[in-house]
Amino acid sequence: MANNYYSDSTNTNVIPIIRVGEVISVTDNTKSGRIKVRITGIDDKETDNSLINCVPLLPKYLTILPKVGECVFVFQYEHKDSSPSASFKNKRFWLGPLITQPTKLEGEFYNSSLSILPDGYAKLKDPNLEEGSYGNDEDIVLQGRFNTDIVQKDREMWLRVGKTVEGSPEKFNTENIGFIQLKYGGEKLNRKIVNKEVITFVTEPVKINIFATLNTITEDGTILTGDLPKDSYIGSNINRTEVFIKVTNAQTGQIVTSFENENINGPNSRELALKVAKNFIDINRGNAWKIKSRSNDLIDIYNGNNGVAIFKSEPIEVKKIIPEVLLEKGKAKTNSVINVVANKINLISHDGEHDFNLTDPKSLVTNEEQEVINTQAHPIVYGDKLLEFLVILQNYVKSHKHPHHNLRPDPSTIVTNVTDFPLDTLLNKNINTN
Question: For 5-116, CATH number?
């Protein structure tokens, strides 16, 4: 064997407790689940026969054996006797096989399996699984290699065969899947409508929108921006200030009125323009208004910020009665249900009058024997159809007359046993079939 893990780790400062390896052999006459695994970089000089056995980590109650060529995790335990000169002894344990995606349950080679690891050779791709193919993320699922599984859901369990389409493991089989579905529940939810009081707080909506622009222009024709300090708009270099205001209906967007004045002149024109604009706005704003402007000094007058000023109002409490649908559990008792679904359903007793082979050691029922059972086992009578016929027969007995004297038969117990028999009791309403 190669040097122990501790010696191998001297240069890397890492003790590799877990490695991945390729399965070389699964032959074990003791049926204990021991396999031989080759670890790249550790077992390069070992022959297949000299590889030590790996012991399964899973308990024997759950038997999973990898295939030759698949990938498994290998846990290594090393120890040595108390003697300083003793060599390390090696024990290995395996866990696997490492399968990257549900569509590869039938088998996946070593290199492909490594794609699930960060340093794998290939990137995983979305397998595009159809809903129902492999259960949901919240389910507990026991997957088989070949198109079978056991799915445990909330108060429900499925035992399925042929769950996916043959040759297309990502597609759910809607044609002939066979399954046993066990369900526990049955409470019905009743819809009940009740009146519910809802309290909301609303503010009065804006009725008037005001858009205002104040352009202060210097002697050389420069238009000053609206975010400057107030002192910037006063001085001998100020030529004039233009005022443009548009008032619109907030609901319709239609213009209510407007103001344009391009001839407020002089070094103090900005201050005068603010007064003119405020006067016009106050006359036309009403009680529910919003002002937008790039002129910060105008917005400041109305205690706004970020280019917007809006009227202040206290929220008004509004009460509404609205119908609410409640779902309440009905009085139906909790029960259990089993649905058995397949193309052919056979219920066979070992003590029945047949010679079917039901105990083949490899298959229980072989494919050849299955064909015999499918064709020779007795069919089940449709209970409701049988009842329909018996009603006709019962009516016949009740109405039958002897032709030679046109009289009814004597009302003996033989007749009354037929005419008075409660036919509905023939049906077991807890077991149904199609």
Answer: 2.40.50
